[in-house]
Amino acid sequence: MSKYIARRLLLIIPTLIILTLLVFGLMRVLPGDVATRMLSDEAGALSIKNVSADALRAKMGLDRPLYLQYLNWLWDLARGDLGESLLTGKRVGDEIIQRLPVTFQIALMAQILSLVIGIPVGIISAVKQNSWMDLLLRFWSILFLAAPSFWLATLFILVAALQFNWLPPMGYHSLLEDPKGNLLQLVWPSIILAHGGLATIARMTRSTMLEVMREDYIRTARAKGLKEQVVIIRHALKNALIPVVTLAGLSFAGLMGGTVILEQIFAIPGMGSFFISAIRFRDYPIVQGTVIVFAVIFMLVNLLIDLMYGWLDPRISYS
Questions:
Q1: What pLDDT shows up at residue 313?
Q2: Total tally of structural domains belonging to the chain
Q3: What is the mean pLDDT of residues 269-275?
Q4: Does pTM top 0.70 for this prediction?
């Protein structure tokens, strides 16, 4: 097990190197840079009067050859330094540490909701195959898959405001300082964000449950006189969960990315506004650092998912 984990962790290094090349190159391909954006922005232009774009680029180190910029950034990244914002001068790592827990909490709450609701829905749909309940749940799953989260969030706010004269809490309350206010504020974007993953997990659970329920060992368990509930939960569900767990791990990265727009709509100071503002101003260190942090989280989550396979199916070996 330890050797397998070590190999997987070592494989993260070449993956990150390829990713750094991609994100570094793509940001430089975009037209304009932070100096141009600062001089074209009214607020920024007022604060840097009588300064040319070339002087700003020289001050920020953007006039150096691209390969030197990349190697310097890669060296800093290897030492755990994500650099400083070209726009504000603040350390990127500190900004991410401050904002990432907010985004992570929303994605985690959405993932928990997806699993807690999606798995039972998929089980019921499989057990009641081709019944009116199965057809209703499948229709609901397809409907939720087709509805984008930003549209649902906008519709939710409009209906709440126009029909009930109520708006969901905006802003942000720390979980440690105000747990109740924090949960009341983040539960709405989490529910909206969860709808797509919930429907996907429900459909995957239904498909894998139907496949497992046809296996010989399920017929044997029933022949032994075990209760149907025991057969479904203890024997069928555990083996059916392996594809579901894989899907949940892959969807977590999508949930992290899906918070970007929802944070804008609900005025939550997470990674969303931070990342979008950095792209708009071509703030390279913030964009590069954010992408790397999200990539590391995604790869660690997938490693955790792989390790869970051994618990779900003892036949799986990591030797």
A1: 62
A2: 2
A3: 81
A4: yes
